[in-house]
């Protein structure tokens, strides 16, 4: 079932929405929707458990009380399946999806909703350098910032890109202390794998209060919260399937072909032990951190 974004009020659609400003091409640095460094994202693998991955996006955007935005940007749009919900929510807005991964952008451009959405490839830092001040009414980023080292430093630029009275909404995972991540880290530190995995991208995030205080310091009115979802996953090695499309992907891609199958088999074994299947599916607790900030209006 495809999730829908709840709308707090019927939007008043402008007759002539302004076109979104196009970003420059990405430079390959650690970036929106990807981590750079030659990492190739697999849209089909990412879309496994798409409904479970999509629910936080719906919960996030449902708290954005924007009635008639003209320009909406999805920063780190991935394969575009969730960006289309923004076009449904605000049909008169110019919607742009940005991702650093060319594979994700190609997949997004092939979706049925692509006629209503402009997609472009760009790194988040490059995009921020090109984005006009106050040019975006609603800026959304779903599960992307955790891939950007030092992403708190991006917050001033993100706020700068938002129009006065506009909205910045983002969500990041907060489960990096769970076995789904720590078991991968432990195995990656063992030989023969460790010799190949130095410097591999590892996602990270902060607690909700850290984001709240940082954005308050930038003059925003902030709503921050966290939720732990209990996803019931089915199928063979479902937790491995989940992490191999996101958090574990840089590790798996960094391994040589002769070592990758052994690493995968051992990680699957450890994950099965940590997340047993009782015949009713595997329960994966997943903590996520949400922030919705409204930029101060000009005096």
TrEMBL record:
In which residue ranges is the amino acid composition biased (Pro residues)? 1-17
- GO MF annotation list: trans-aconitate 2-methyltransferase activity
Q: Which residues form the signal peptide?
A: none
PANTHER family recorded for this chain?
TRANS-ACONITATE 2-METHYLTRANSFERASE, TRANS-ACONITATE 2-METHYLTRANSFERASE-RELATED
Q: Which SUPFAM superfamilies match?
A: S-adenosyl-L-methionine-dependent methyltransferases
InterPro entries given in the database record:
Methyltransf_25, SAM-dependent_MTases_sf, Trans_acon_MeTrfase_C
Asked if the keyword Cell membrane belongs to this entry, the reply reads no
Coiled-coil stretches are none
Give EC number(s), comma-separated: 2.1.1.144
Give the record's keywords alphabetically.
Answer: Methyltransferase, Transferase
This chain belongs to the protein called Trans-aconitate 2-methyltransferase
Top-level class of the enzyme under EC nomenclature: transferase
A GO biological process of this protein is:
methylation
For bias kind Low complexity, which ranges apply?
A: 18-30
Ranges for region Disordered: 1-35
Q: What is the taxonomic lineage of the source species?
A: Bacteria, Bacillati, Actinomycetota, Actinomycetes, Propionibacteriales
């Amino acid at each position: 079932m495809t999730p829908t974004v709840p709308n707090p009020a019927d939007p008043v659609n402008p007759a002539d929405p302004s076109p979104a400003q196009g970003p420059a091409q990405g430079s390959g640095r650690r970036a929106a929707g990807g981590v750079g460094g030659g990492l190739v994202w697999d849209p089909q693998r990412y879309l496994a458990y798409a409904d479970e991955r999509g629910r936080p996006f719906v919960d996030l955007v449902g708290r954005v009380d924007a009635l008639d935005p003209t320009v909406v940007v999805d920063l780190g749009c991935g394969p575009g399946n969730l960006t289309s919900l923004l076009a449904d929510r605000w049909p008169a807005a110019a919607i742009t999806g940005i991702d650093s991964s060319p594979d994700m952008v190609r997949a997004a451009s092939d979706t049925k909703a692509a006629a209503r959405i402009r997609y472009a490839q760009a790194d988040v830092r490059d995009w921020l350098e090109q984005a006009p001040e106050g040019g975006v009414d609603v800026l959304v980023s779903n599960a992307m910032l955790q891939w950007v080292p030092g992403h708190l430093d991006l917050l001033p630029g993100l706020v700068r890109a938002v129009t006065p009275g506009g909205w910045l909404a983002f969500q990041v995972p907060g489960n990096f202390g769970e076995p789904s991540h720590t078991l991968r880290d432990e195995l990656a530190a063992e030989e023969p794998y460790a010799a190949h995995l130095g410097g591999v991208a590892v996602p990270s995030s902060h607690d909700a209060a850290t984001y709240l205080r940082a954005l308050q310091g930038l003059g925003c009115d902030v709503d921050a919260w966290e939720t732990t979802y209990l996803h019931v996953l089915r199928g063979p090695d479902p937790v491995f399937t989940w992490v191999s499309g996101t958090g574990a992907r840089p590790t798996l891609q960094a391994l040589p072909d002769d070592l990758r199958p052994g690493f995968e088999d051992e990680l699957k074994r450890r994950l099965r032990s940590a997340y047993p299947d009782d015949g009713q599916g595997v329960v994966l607790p997943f903590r996520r951190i949400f922030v919705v900030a409204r930029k101060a209006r000009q005096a």
